[in-house]
Amino acid sequence: MSYLETTAKFYSEVAETPQIGLCCVQSSPLQLPGLKIPLAMQEMNYGCGTTVHPTELANQPTVLYVGVGGGLEALQFAYFSRRPGAVIAVDPVAAMREAATRNLQAAVTENSWFDPSFVEIRAGDAFNLPVPDTSVDVVAQNCLFNIFEPDDLTLALKEAWRVLKPGGRLQMSDPIATRPIPVHLQQDERLRAMCLSGALTYDEYTQTIVDAGFGQVEIRARRPYRLLDCHTYNLEENLLLESLDSVSFKVPIPDDGACIFTGKTAIYAGTESFFDDSAGHVLQQGIPAAVCDKTAAKLAALMPTEVIVTNSTWHYTGGGCC
Ligand SMILES: C[S@@+](CC[C@H](N)C(=O)[O-])C[C@H]1O[C@@H](n2cnc3c(N)ncnc32)[C@H](O)[C@@H]1O
Asked: What are the TM regions of this chain, as residue ranges (predicted)?
């Protein structure tokens, strides 16, 4: 059995018998006015963060949701799009598709705004998405891509890039590892399926996204997720996993490299009223300007005493330099 079959079997089991708290972080699902999440759906919250960013879902976007789970985020996306077929949710596991269908049906009775036609559940997988090229505004996946081995992750990211419209967004939430996960854990297929041993480091994860063609990556959140302790996992030292929420844009990669926004700002502290780097960045004296990490590094090298670069907040929600 391949690790993907082990994964499918695992999610078939947890579709039939929900495992409360399997992946979730210590936070309740995003609450929105007039949105009621059925209990069965909450119990199947198998995501490690959120991919639903309310301020970015204007104009009823078409959303392709990969790995539907119990349907929680599909319902949340439908809340914003509210039209038939606006959310296409894909899953290869029949039991999971059935559970999501049941849960979405239950949502109808609790949410007067919701019609089940808003979410279309389709059989399919992350490597062969059942939609045409450049046809969706958003691709979202929560706690799935971290399970994939590196070559499969690249395939899944390229497939997301294929189906996105130009400028479209890949909204993801995944565990990342604070140092490389040892091979003996990476090869444990069940741990991998449980989102505990396939995670890449932050640098590997963001580089893989860029290598798949995404020219801009924005980090929405980064927080502690799980500890792999040295006793249970046969490690020399404890290993912390974090969860990372990101939005990656299908825009061309600039000649000098992708823009990755992690919440850094640059502040001109010189004596003039502003500083212009002649590369498109004008800093008003004393006023923080959001910059991507690439620009932050360039400015810090160019003007080490007159430009102060603040640390990554790991919470970036827009605006910026590039
Ligand atoms: C960790 S769960 C996350 C579920 C959901 N995103 C959530 O946040 O609750 C992973 C989901 O991906 C599905 N899945 C497994 N293998 C997949 C694949 N190759 N392509 C797409 N989905 C897959 C599983 O059936 C399951 O629904």
From this structure: none
